[in-house]
From TrEMBL:
Top-level class of the enzyme under EC nomenclature: transferase
Record keywords: Aminotransferase, Pyridoxal phosphate, Transferase
Keyword Transferase assigned: yes
UniProt protein name: Methionine aminotransferase
Length: 389
């Protein structure tokens, strides 16, 4: 039986239900569908990483880590960022190890955004940004990227900025479009925020997954933006261990102080054994420098396998994702098509409309290539069989 409460509740997020990822996951499980939907690898991580966790556990590192993270790991993070992007963060005061990148995003928004503030973000977007802003009593302001290129219209951003604007949320490489910001984009963002109190929250969890020899134009590459930015990244995405739920963020000390005030009451500290293992793994720069080529091979394989499919693939400049346009062969909504793909063809994808608060339907679905070769081949084979409706 279902237990019922006599207590009257008032939801803070009355229009938020089960996420599309859960819905698609449940439908996929019922039909044993091939998983091209979830941005989580289905292949093993480096065995040395698992061994590192095991060693840490055996050595007794099973209690709370320091609140901001293990010093050795924070130092590795600071050194990596300085080497790659040219900005040096103080490992003691400006680096925070978080219990997932999602926790880092939440702590940053909660610590720095106040009731009545406005937060600009770009759609399609990762689904947590707007709800977390709303939980602070603030207003999320969505600006749509220009489809199908998914570029930023900076004139629209300028028009949206007002005295209540507290934060702009950036995501590069971008989930779900696979696009990346350019040096020109950073210059535009810097010009808009110059001589303001606007903060930047930059979701850079795919920072090491940028393709075709291009550079990652993150906030730490631009001194003016680094001064007002909180940058969030993910060990789970970098090391194929999304279930370990460890990430980090970096920010100027004054901003980090406020983020840590929230973090200490959310989690206090991230998982200790994993932090020891990540500190060991980061001793080898190839553990992240090799990632772009690794995922580019997967992108290229999936693209080649879908050449004869009815779908038209959009370019992917980074991340784990490709967008596929089906407007040439169907007028179905993207949600209807995704459900048909699961039920009739046994392959799971994600409708792009799920990444818009207003359900914008551009006749695009998202495919994840963060999968082993067998899964990519099987999923592509199924998609090549799709018939018009």
């Amino acid at each position: 039986m279902t237990l019922r409460t006599p207590v009257q509740t008032r939801s803070k997020l009355p229009d938020v239900g089960t996420t599309i990822f859960t819905v698609i996951g449940e439908l996929s499980a019922r039909h044993n569908a091939i998983n091209l939907s979830q941005g989580a690898p289905n292949f093993a991580c480096d065995p040395g990483l698992v061994a590192g966790v095991t060693r840490a556990m055996a050595a007794g590192h099973n209690q709370y880590a320091p609140m901001t993270g293990l010093q050795a790991l924070k130092t590795r993070i600071a050194d990596k960022i300085a080497t790659l992007y040219g900005t040096r963060y103080d490992a003691d005061r400006e680096v925070l190890v978080t219990a997932s990148a999602s926790e880092g995003l939440y702590a940053a928004i909660s610590g720095l955004v106040h009731p009545g503030d406005e937060v600009i973000y770009f759609e399609p977007s990762f689904d947590s940004y707007a709800p977390v802003v709303r939980l602070q009593g603030a207003k999320p302001v969505a600006i749509k990227l220009n489809a199908p290129e998914f570029t930023v219209n900076w004139d629209e951003v300028r028009a949206a900025v007002n005295p209540r604007t507290r934060m702009i949320i950036i995501n590069t490489p971008h989930n779900p479009s696979g696009q990346v910001l350019s040096a020109h984009d950073l210059a535009e963002l810097a010009a808009i925020t110059r001589q303001t109190d606007i903060l930047i929250l930059s979701d850079e969890v795919y920072e090491h997954v940028v393709f075709d020899g291009a550079a990652h134009h993150g906030m730490a590459t631009h001194p003016q933006l680094a001064e007002r930015s909180v940058i969030v990244s993910s060990f789970g995405k970098t090391y194929h261990v999304t279930g370990w739920r460890v990430g980090y963020c970096v920010a100027p000390a004054e901003l980090m102080e406020e983020i840590c005030k929230v973090h200490q009451f959310l989690m206090f500290s991230a998982d200790t054994p994993m932090q020891y293992a990540f500190a060991e793994q980061m001793a080898d720069p190839q553990s992240w420098l090799s990632l772009a080529a690794f995922y580019q091979r997967k992108r290229d394989l999936l693209q080649s396998l879908l050449v004869d499919s009815p779908f038209r693939l959009l370019p992917s400049a980074g991340s784990f994702f490709l967008l596929a346009d089906y407007s040439d062969f169907s007028e179905e909504s993207d949600s209807a098509l995704v459900q048909r793909l699961i039920v009739e063809y046994g392959v799971a994808t994600i409708p792009l409309s799920a990444f818009y608060t207003d359900g914008t339907d551009n006749k695009l679905i998202r495919l994840s290539f963060a999968k082993d070769e067998a899964t990519l081949r099987a999923g592509a084979h199924a998609l090549c069989q799709v018939k018009p409706r």
